Amino acid sequence: MASIRKLKNEINRTSFHLINECFSYRYLNPEKTVKIDEIIRDLIRMRNDLIRRSNHCEPAENSKEIRQHFMRVREDLGKLTELTRNT
């Protein structure tokens, strides 16, 4: 992991890009407004959770556990895109 700051920037960049795409899709497909609003709420919730987890790493005895924590955060970042695939 290069740095926590880069991870948080990547989380923000990815989530804001997906939210922007949802708003564009909602504008072009007004009949799916309710579904898109739910996806946007889930994206925001997941983004906030990822930022919280990257800020507050549980104290670990060794660096391997810390690396595994941040690898799980990075894996969950990939799940953001899965939220938008069901539309």
How many H/I helical runs? 3
Task: Quote the beta fraction.
Answer: under 5%
Distance between the termini: 33 Å
The count of DSSP E runs of length 2 or more, i.e. the number of strands, is 0
Structural class of the secondary elements? mainly alpha
Overall mean pLDDT stands at 88
Question: Can you walk through the features of this model?
Answer:
There is one protein chain. The chain is built from 3 helices and no strands. It has 87 residues and is mainly α. It has one domain. The mean pLDDT is 88.
Layout of SSEs?
Blueprint: H1 4-28, H2 33-55, H3 63-84
Which keywords apply here?
elongated, 87 residues
Short description:
This protein is an all-alpha fold and 87 residues long. It has one domain.
